[in-house]
Amino acid sequence: MNIVSKFFLWTRRAIKPTHIVGLIMLAALWGFRHWNPPPLQSLQLKTFDFYQTLQPRKGKDLPIPVTIIDVDEASLEKYGQWPWPRTLLGQLTDRLRESGVGVIGFDVFFPEYDRMSPALVAENLHGLDDNLATQLKALPTTESVLANSLRKMRVVLGQGTLLESTDFGGSFPLKAKVALMGNRDRILKRIPRFPGILRNVPELESAALGLGMVALEPEIDGVIRRVNMALRVGEEVYPTMTLEMMRLALGQENLL
């Protein structure tokens, strides 16, 4: 009996039908896990939520407290409907600075000019006296008032993401450069990418010390369980608002 015949005889004796069935099931499970279909993702998310309910992660006392200022119904009733005039946001920024706040982050966007700016009011209010219109146009814009407040404080303005490309006549301004350690291509593949960016008006962006991306990606069940620390727009890497606020709070110029 030659070697080949001995090998086939050994395999017939050593490998049982149950072994073949087990290998097929193992390959099927591996393929199912690699494919990661929506039902399996839902099961993983529900299991994660169950673990968090069973033994939730305990929060740590931060040396520097974090406060969220929310525009609630009482605020809207007192100061009027949103969006508020940017002069009011400037007053809010000044009050926070006087209260000793270290860093302020605006998670709202200012892509258009304030309709309550005196010059725009003069243009849109028909039948206005010419002298009064001239006086209104001579007043500072609400953007300039807010910009003056931003310059006195460490402020991060939020920038949104767009699903279509945008061209602003050059690369987007970065307040801080993001340096990547390790295999750049491998890292970039793990950072979510968007084709466009929603900017603020130039007067405000130039006055702010930081610019941070704001983009939330919910899971397949609509629940947000994780927040990115960086995003890509084109080939550039941008810090999110959280990371940019940490940079300003720590007094760093760049991000690594």
Automatic annotation (TrEMBL):
Query: Start and end of every CHASE2 domain?
Result: 40-251
InterPro entries in UniProt: CHASE2
Q: Name one Pfam family in it.
A: CHASE2
What is the name of this protein? Answer: CHASE2 domain-containing protein
Q: Which organism is it from?
A: marine metagenome
Source species taxonomy: unclassified sequences, metagenomes, ecological metagenomes
